[in-house]
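During the no-cost extension, the postdoctoral fellow (Dr. R.K.) reprocessed legacy sequence entries with the updated structure-token encoder. One reprocessed record is reproduced below for audit purposes.
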Amino acid sequence: MSFITLDDNVFLRLRGVRNSLTPVERTIEEYVLANKNEIPHLSVKGLAQKSHTSDASVLRFCKTLGYRGYRDFIVAVSAALGSADKTESEYTDIQPGDDLQTIITNVSRNNRKSIEDTMSVIDRDAIGRAVELLRKASRIDFYGIGASGLVCMDAQQKFTRIGKTCFAYTDGHSQLTAASILKSGDVAVLISNSGDTLDILNTLEVAKESKATIIAITRYVKSELANEADLVLNFSTPEITIRSGAMGSRIAMLNIVDILFTGVASANYKNVKALLTKTHNVLAGKHKHLNWDKG
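Re-encoded structure tokens follow.
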């Protein structure tokens, strides 16, 4: 099944499948990325010769990316090159000794770029199906480790405020326990940058045995998590060396959570507005009898 979207950017797609490429496909990928402007002018045979592979390998490479054939791949490369922002198209990693102004600019640019790149690869239909699943779910569990766990906590706080029964689990033991008591009609949202985190994969197995519906939020569309989930929402962030990459992935995941939350809230706006107003009033201290200073 093709995973190409209307806003497809072939270079972002390459980033998303990189971990699942065969050695020969990785060789083709490396040549393509190093010679982007040359690719639209090459035939199948030309790219095979340049990358020291074969015609069949190039065609398999195109299929791996989700294209029907080489022509579709070339059209996608040409479109990506034509729409590239030449001024601020690249991520910038943290460098030793960067001054504060440079740090402010680069971190902000990287975060913005993570959201922009994610919007270029995200499957709009999958978002719609995820919103419907979450709207109808009896219970929603969010599972994630590390930075992904922080995203889970944010999701729990949001969905709780609109009356959904939901929980966030951020360590392996509690995840397995929670997943074991899920049932049909429940939704488990597993969040993992790599899609190969052992704790998450163990939780995935238990949640599937419990007959819960699995939504994966992950960067790699061909990771084990993505392959086993009922629905995949993927994002795109850079592979750079210091903390910029981790920050970018967190921003992209939070953005997807915000989209899902807003979609669910919008579908039931009248009731949600009342709930949000009620929780806002409580948090704002409108209920004067809640005086924690006494006693």
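The longest helix spans residues 244-267. The first strand starts at residue 140 and ends at 143. The remaining legacy entries will be reprocessed before the final report is submitted.
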